[in-house]
Design brief:
Layout lengths: L2 H10 L1 H9 L3 H12 L4 H13 L16 H5 L16 E3 L4 E8 L4 E5 L2 E4 H5 L2 H7 L3 E6 L7 E3 L4 E9 L8 H6 L3 H4 L2 E8 L5 E7 L7 E3 L14 E9 L4 E5 L4 E6 L4 E2 L8 E2 L4 E4 L4
Antiparallel strand pairs: 1-16, 2-5, 2-15, 3-4, 5-13, 6-12, 7-8, 7-11, 8-9, 9-13, 10-12, 14-16
């Protein structure tokens, strides 16, 4: 049995996985990986990527380049032109990222599911009562990015971004073993709330990218994020930024999660099913008729 198989067997043990990835000094580990990943030394880069391959099935065949300056450069890699076709149907929101579909469906009077039997309040996630009123009985879908996936996220439709709300928080893992054992993970972790109005109708859609352990921060490329990520109250920035469907909005610096919120009347598309892998640009939600 190879070392990679041994590591794979160990990480398949859910209880062990939960302990190893959550009961270490999370913030210290995150800062360390953030520092290490940015070292632009060929030896450090190659060793880091080699260790990463031991723990995963990393596939770089779709990357725009096969040459990376650092581990971080590999994490946030761009893709070849045309690698993610964008569904152009005007009544369809597309997936903002590559991800595995988690809990999804109707928001029941402001309550959503982390996993079956583990509810959390929309108000705790977004910390904005106006948004809670907007999505109280809307639709949501949770998209989990694994560490090897494409880490950039994109606009789900032609839209105008009207506000960004950054909420400081922890860096718990967001993998299935953690979601089964720890309540309200998304409400505890660092996250951004990106509020937008869909073009030609003004329907509201909100993306909530959630950071996690070993994510040395999430980045938005249309607004400056707060340099201090330890604020106790939400950092709020009003803006007016027009984006096209499929346009890049930002990136994670490791794997994490995006929660997509649609108003009442939005419907999940057929391909959106529990534990299915979906790619950026694929149909995600269908908007109601105007």
């Amino acid at each position: 049995m190879t070392l990679k198989h041994v590591i794979h067997r160990l990480t398949e043990n859910e209880a062990l996985n939960f302990v190893l990835t959550n009961y270490i000094p999370r913030r210290t580990a995150t800062r360390f990986v953030g520092w290490l990943s940015r070292i632009e030394n060929p030896l450090v880069r190659d060793l880091s990527i080699g260790v990463w391959r031991l723990f995963s099935d990393l596939d770089l065949s779709e990357a725009r380049t096969s040459s990376f300056r650092s581990l971080h450069d590999c994490f946030i890699r761009e893709l070849k032109q045309g690698a993610r076709p964008i569904s152009r149907s005007p009544d369809t929101l597309v997936s903002p990222c590559d991800g595995i579909v988690g809990a999804s469906g109707r928001i029941r009077d402001g309550v959503m599911l982390q996993v079956k039997g583990s509810p959390y309040a929309l108000s705790e996630l977004v910390r904005d009562e106006t948004l809670v009123d907007t999505y109280r009985n809307g639709t949501y879908v949770t998209l989990r990015l694994t560490s090897t996936m494409y880490h950039r996220f994109h606009a789900p439709h032609d839209a105008r971004i009207v506000e960004v709300r950054h909420i400081a928080g922890d860096t718990f893992n967001v993998n299935p073993p953690t979601l089964k054992r720890l309540q309200k993970v998304y409400c505890r972790n660092e996250r951004a709330v990106i509020d937008m109005r869909v073009a030609d109708g003004g329907r509201r859609v909100t993306l909530v990218p959630v950071a996690a352990i070993l994510v040395a921060g999430l980045r938005l490329n249309f607004v400056e994020m707060p340099p201090d990520r330890s604020h106790t109250e939400p950092w709020i920035r009003a803006c007016s930024v027009d984006v096209a469907k499929g346009q890049e909005l930002g990136w994670f610096e490791h794997g994490s999660t995006i929660i997509v919120l649609g108003e009442a009347g939005f419907e999940l598309c057929e391909a959106v099913a529990q534990d299915e892998t979906i790619r950026m640009g694929m149909p995600l939600m269908r908007m109601p008729n105007a």
